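Our consortium's second objective concerns turning raw sequence data into structural hypotheses that experimental partners can test. To show how far this objective has progressed, the report includes one record in full. It was chosen at random from the queue rather than selected for favorable results. The single chain below, 110 residues long, was entered without modification.
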Amino acid sequence: MATGQVERVAITIDAPIDVVWAVFTDVEQWPTWTRSVTSVELIDGPMRLGARARIRQPRLPTVVWTVTAWDPGKSWTWTATGPGARTRASHVLTAPGAATIAEQSIIPSG
């Protein structure tokens, strides 16, 4: 499969890493703080390796994401597969000081 252009975004958040981790992994609450997500439904329990979430976004088809890597308190990666395409998204937190850097990378292929 061909890999598309990687989209990477990072933001510094004035909060400890454990607080940011709790907010970022509470995916069903994402619609309360980002307009890019309409709804998130955890299909089979809490976020963890193998967990699946159904995500609806404005002007995009509904997609099911599966957690493929899970490093509690630090990072997770999940993958969504559709007809002829696969997208991987990684979420990485680092805390070089009192603040936390949250980085998201979207890697399309197919």
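The partners drew two points from this record. The two ends are 5 Å apart (CA to CA). Strands lie at 7-13, 39-42, 52-56, 63-71, 75-82, 85-94, 100-109. Both points have been shared with the crystallography group to help prioritize constructs.
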